[in-house]
Amino acid sequence: MAQLTNRRSFLKSTGALAGTVFMGGGAIAEEEKREVKNVIFLVADGMGVGTLSLTECWHQTRASQSLEWVQLYTQAGVVVSKQDTASANSMVTDSAAAGSAWGGGKRVNNGVINITPEGEELKPIGVHAKELGMSVGLVTTTRLTHATPAAFLASVQHRKMEEAIADQYLVAEADVYLGGGMKFFRQGERDLITKFEQKGYAFVDNKQSLKLNAGKDKLLGVFSHDHIPYAIDRVHQAFYSGLPNLVEMFEAALQTLEKNPNGFLLQIEGGRIDHAGHANDPGTIVHEQLEFDACIPVAMEYVRKNPGTLLVVTTDHGTAGCQLNGVGNAYRGTGEALAALADQQGSFEFMAEDAQGRGAFSSELFMQVMGWEAWPEIEQEVNDKLGIDKDLLARVYGKHCAGKYLAKTGVGWTSHEHTAELVDLLSYGAGAERFPPYLKNEDVHHILKGLLKRG
Ligand SMILES: [Zn+2]
């Protein structure tokens, strides 16, 4: 790889690569040509290396092959970097600060989007791309106004200002917005959807209408009130069958964005790997990671067919120290134990929402989802805490199931919080050689911006 990089830089310095034409001994640069036309930026939010390794092992036991992510390591032309994910005020970042480092190019405090501790407002990379005449797309399984997509297009003092973020989206006019979070677009008197439609957006809210409208000039898809339900629940619950998955949203976004001859910047976020980590929910995190993984071959094919496209595959931080641990004598029972993960038929969040809806913990549902008899301590604590946020209630399930899960499947956790671990950043296609083996999250912004420069 090092040799290839050197050869590329050598060719570049002699002007022998595309972009420069030799005529009669002199060199004339092609005008207004960017080194990179399109950027596809895939984010597996909150994916620590243990989550990747767990999913890889599970996938090996089920499909007898490696994850697409793992296959990238052996793919010619893929550059593998390690990324330091710290924020301005902590070694452990949150998604707002991590996204701002990529989006705005400077480290900010946790919780803040694209405003530095000194008060400087950073121009998000998506706004920059629009100024260059490119199209921009944000696609996520979280609320559209969640921190990671927001950091490519918005600036706010706190990530919780999600109505303000949605308002900024209307002004920024990205060409594609696909995700969840209707409550920040249309609720009560507030109706941003109509305002988007007045600006020429085709609005869609289910899988069918997404398919029909893919390729329209501007696309707004909001598929759920809050985050889009987890992949494991979409698979097992028939009433979620109208929801698109991440790959379907990705493909629809490409159809719209690729119409622009000036290229595009597209962020695709598997945003709920992080949430499953916070909840310490093993079956759910594996399904989230697998759904994200299915985006990688779509992106790789696009890059191969469309020279001038850069693909970045990365994560903003690890979450909760998910690990597959050895089970049994000389760990020989690990594979068999791991297979028990398939018994889980729904997320902890799904059970938490059900308990909140019916006003009590359901032993019957717990049995259906987990295949285990419930026990008094979990029932008691869930019933005591029914009024808290559903993501916090999901953690109660995670806390009580942790010991049993560890013994049964080998999957364990270090906390319910983010981690400081170094994470992967993989790049492929146009400009991939610009990513060094080790970088800070804010470096990513400057590399992308350099590659988008004209001339
Ligand atoms: Zn998180």
Summarize the structure.
The chain is α/β, with parallel strands linked by helices and 455 residues long.
Q: Pick out the low-confidence regions.
A: 1-31
Strand element count: 18
Full CATH superfamily name of the largest domain? Alkaline Phosphatase, subunit A
Number of structurally distinct domains: 2
Radius of gyration, rounded?
Answer: 22 Å
Instruction: Quickly give the CATH architecture of the largest domain.
Output: 3-Layer(aba) Sandwich
Amino-to-carboxy terminus distance: 27 Å
Helix content range: 40-55%
Largest sheet: 10 strands, mixed
* Count of alpha and pi helical runs: 20
Provide the fold topology.
Elements: H1 2-13, E1 20-23, E2 26-29, E3 38-44, H2 49-63, H3 68-72, E4 79-84, H4 95-104, H5 125-131, E5 135-143, H6 147-150, H7 162-172, E6 176-180, E7 186-187, E8 190-191, H8 192-198, E9 202-204, H9 207-213, E10 219-222, H10 231-236, H11 246-257, E11 264-270, H12 273-278, H13 282-293, H14 295-305, E12 309-314, E13 318-319, E14 323-324, H15 334-339, H16 348-358, H17 363-370, H18 376-384, H19 390-409, E15 411-412, E16 418-419, E17 423-429, E18 438-440, H20 441-452
Parallel strand pairs: 3-11, 3-12, 4-18, 5-6, 5-11, 6-10, 9-10
Antiparallel strand pairs: 1-2, 4-17, 7-8, 12-17, 13-16, 14-15
The site of zinc ion has 6 residues, from helix 12.
Keywords: Phosphoprotein
Protein name: Alkaline phosphatase
Family: Belongs to the alkaline phosphatase family.
